[in-house]
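Exercise: predict the fold of this chain.
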Amino acid sequence: GAFGRKGMAINFVTNDERQPLRDIEHYYNTQIEELPMNIADLI
């Protein structure tokens, strides 16, 4: 996040972009969580 605050980024990913995204996860040793189809489920 900005100025030491926590933040979130939302990216829309096509099927063709899934593997490069997994490669980025692997490189940075992290996991990018997939949001549910219905965002209201998070509330």
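Check your answer against the key: The mean pLDDT is 86.
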